[in-house]
Amino acid sequence: MKDLTKVVHHPEVDRTGFASLAVPTHRASTIVFPTARAYAERRDREPDGYAYGLGGTPTTRTLEAQMSALEQGEGTIILPSGQAAIAILFVTVLAPGDTVLIPDNVYPQVRTLCTEVLARQGIAHRVYPPLVGSGIEAFLDDTVQLIWTESPGSGTMEVEDLPAIVAVARRHGILTGCDNTWATPLLFKPLAIGMDFAMEALTKYVSGHSDVLLGSITVRDPEWHRRLRSCARTLGIGVSPDDCALALRGLETLGVRIAHIGRVSTGIAMALREHPAVLRMLHPALPECPGHASWDRDFAGASGVFSIVLRADLDPFLDEALAAIRIFRIGASWGGTSSLLAPMTLQGRLDTAIAGERRIVRVSIGLEDAEDLMEDLTRVLDHLVELADVRAR
User: Fold this and answer.
1) pLDDT digit string (tens) for 97-135?
2) Under a CB-based contact definition with an 8 Å cutoff, are residues 351 and 325 in contact?
3) Which residue from 149, 168, 174 is spatially nearest to 93, judged by alpha carbons?
4) Gap between the Cα atoms of 150 and 160, Å rounded
5) Spatial separation of the C-alpha atoms in residues 63 and 109, rounded to whole Å
6) Residue 225's pLDDT band (boundaries 50, 70, 90)?
7) What's the confidence (pLDDT) of residue 348?
């Protein structure tokens, strides 16, 4: 064998005695086959076999298998983000003439997906109140093929009565899916209550370190797993095995992180609910949070994201007050080790007490010391009140 061949072809090495706890990171675009016949029949390997790197490597499959086990599902597909997972699901399930129902508290880009992408394909959507429960039946007609849920909701944190929605949907033969990112499969399992699809933005708690973008869809019916895989492959959508390896690493500490984050977030929300700057604390573990009874019945605990509705007269001073933070960072997303604050504009839909356009602060608790975080949030809220008092004089 000449040198130019030697630099291309790697030698076999003895792996006897090698055993590692780490999942190997398998990178590949090309998959090679032992015979021409095997190559010709490569499509027979779908949906979970290896035919081309776009469809995944053993690293990808390990993450998929672990998510399937946690979600108690019959198959998982990994996508480049949570939003990509929702988009692939909607495109796979829905056809021209169909309708999808989405809650009013849905992640804003899902609404944009419906209005700017699906609508051009002849796919309609309707918005339902997140606390509608079994009243979802009033929103159904013969065109509805999918009911999408997000519980708790983005920003406003309403917890839906998911079992009631599933019961109505199953009577009518309608598919259901849930964005379960806030809870993760450790705190709630959508498929266990009869939902057809569970979506996780692995970007958040599963990866856990603010350095990965991934999403997953886990299914109850293996046929939908095959269809989702086919759709993603046809659209040329795949994921990096390096990102999957980071998500697998994050999964190993998910339990201890969620336990700490949930405990700290609940304690801070309870302690600050009576602060003079706070109109309302939106945390599912607090009785005043819309849908708290559903959370208490269906969820195993709390994670670390909640929202603070400020007094209306404090809205103009929020940006200035946030300059006082020392531990929290200002940023989108959540679920990492660093605590985040995200000032948001809320189109009031919870009740008349906060109707209209309002500012809220979404809080994501990380892994810092609880007392440091409490002091930092208190400093911001105190500063807000001080700024308003000065302006009032």
Assistant:
1) 999 999 999 999 999 999 999 999 999 999 999 999 999
2) no
3) 174
4) 8
5) 26
6) very high
7) 47
Phi first, then psi: what are they for 369, rounded to 5°? -65, 135
Look up tokens 């809205």; give the residue.
315
Are 328 and 377 contacting, i.e. CB atoms less than 8 angstroms apart?
Answer: yes
For the chain, the three-class secondary structure string (H helix, E strand, C coil) is: CCHHHHCCCCCCCCCCCCCCCCCCCCCCCCCCCCCHHHHHCHHHHCCCCCCCHHHCCHHHHHHHHHHHHHHCCCCEEEECCHHHHHHHHHHHHCCCCCEEEEECCCCHHHHHHHHHHHHHHCCEEEEECCCCHHHHHHHCCCCEEEEEEECCCCCCCCCCCHHHHHHHHHHCCCEEEEECCCCHHHHCCHHHHCCCEEEECCCCCCCCCCCCCCEEEEECCHHHHHHHHHHHHHCCCCCCHHHHHHHHHHHHCHHHHHHHHHHHHHHHHHHHCCCCCEEEEECCCCCCCCCHHHHHHHCCCCCCEEEEEECHHHHHHHHHHHHHCCCCEECCCCCCCCCEEEEEEEEECCCHHHCEEEEEEEEECCCCCHHHHHHHHHHHHHHHHHHHHHHHC
Query: At residue 203, what is the residue type?
Result: T
Q: Mean of the pLDDT values across residues 342-347? A: 82
Q: Which two tokens stand for residue 66?
A: 């672990």
Distance CA 143, CA 243 (A): 38
